[in-house]
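Hi W., the NAP complex you wanted:
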Amino acid sequence: MRHFAVIGSGPAGFYTVEALAKAYGDAARIDLIDRLPVPYGLIRFGVAPDHQSIKAVSRRYDKVAEDQCVRFVGNVAVGQDVTIAQLRELYDAVILATGAPSDRALGIPGEELVGVIGSAAFVGWYNGHPDFADLDPPLDGESAAIIGNGNVALDVARILSKTRAEFVGSDIVDHALDALEQSNIRTITLVGRRGPHQIAMTPKELGELGHLDAAVPHTDPADFPDAEVDAALEPGVRKSVAHLRDFAKLDADKPKHINFDFFAKPIRIEGEHRAQRLIVERTRLDDTGASIGTGETYVVPASLVVSCIAYRTPPIPGVPYDEAGGKFANDHGLVEDGLYAVGWARRGPSGTIGTNRPDGYEVAERIVAALPPRSHGGRAGGDGLDALLAAAGVRPTSFADWRTIEAAEAAAARDGAPRAKMVRHEDWLKTLNH
Ligand code: NAP
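Structure:
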């Protein structure tokens, strides 16, 4: 029997478990460990609450969790309740699928001011992540700046723009829904350090901005090269750029405005005790496509600044780390003998949810090659983990526990919503103690 521990129950964790379960069948026991009592990681806490069709992928993960050889072990913080070294003793291989849940620093003065928030925190707040339930972002001012031109920046701009009615059918948490309804923000500036051709936004997500009830997107035609140049773009980018060109023509009279400021590099955030304005430097592109400052600066008023400049994987003591890449140091997923990384913890925060499937399968193949199935003896596996947790007084949650929580969340849902997420550890655990 082989024993595996996969740490992190987001997409990368689930696809890796699926691949291992297929490869080993009954010859393996796989524990899928999560710090939180509930599964799905990025699907529950990262994917936007108004993108329910994307979240539906969790139904597929449920089948994996219900496999006889697989066990969900929630509410276990690796590094705190149990160390990586202990897990490596207990299991034939430990696979890090911890994602990239931490914000990267902007590295500019004023970043510490009240009102400057990283996207991990802001997204966690509206998605009901317990670490950010008390974030209370300042929405009392009229202007917000969003730094970055990726899909997370789009999510944040859209969430700040939607009316209460537009959240029907979403699972946005009540504390965020109420705060957003009271928000005074009318002008949202999306700040990109490069141009429209260099965006990392996908067409479907960008197109949504053109159909909001109370907000209208704007671009400046002067920021675009001649239209013929678009033909050379990769088809997805070309579609996105077509949306951006269309935004320059929209003149709908709506109360909120989403302005795309391209060729604008953030250099400083200023304000008395709290953010009041973002200072940006105009840029141009060099021959390699990198942005270079021109020395000319201007002010973007902003009492809320959300930096959406991609994420990093938090290091774990004793695990080799690639500081520049913000992920575990690894060679095609292999960190060290018996220790692997998958998904964003392996390659950094890129690609779609589906990208993690081939990623997880590839690492699983490497594991099978290194650790062929065997019928006898071996490690203590899950029994050993249970003993350690019991000794430490940790009460892990099972997939059946999650089903209980899931039913309670569904029963408490607002009209039209799939669930009312509980956002605190104690509420999840209280539900199980009934
Ligand atoms: P991302 O796609 O890597 O975009 C990051 C953006 O931040 C880029 O525009 C980048 O500009 C900019 N940036 C980086 N460092 C900066 C700095 N110091 N100052 C100013 N700008 C800076 O990251 P993301 O938006 O966090 O998304 C992460 C991943 O999740 C992506 O693969 C994304 O597609 C995916 N995602 C998908 C969806 C969806 O499909 N619905 C939703 C959310 C996220 P440069 O290009 O100049 O570096």
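The pocket of NAP is lined by residues 106, 147-153, 155, 192-194, 198, 200, 202, 205, 266, 308-311, 349-352 (CB under 6 Å).

W.
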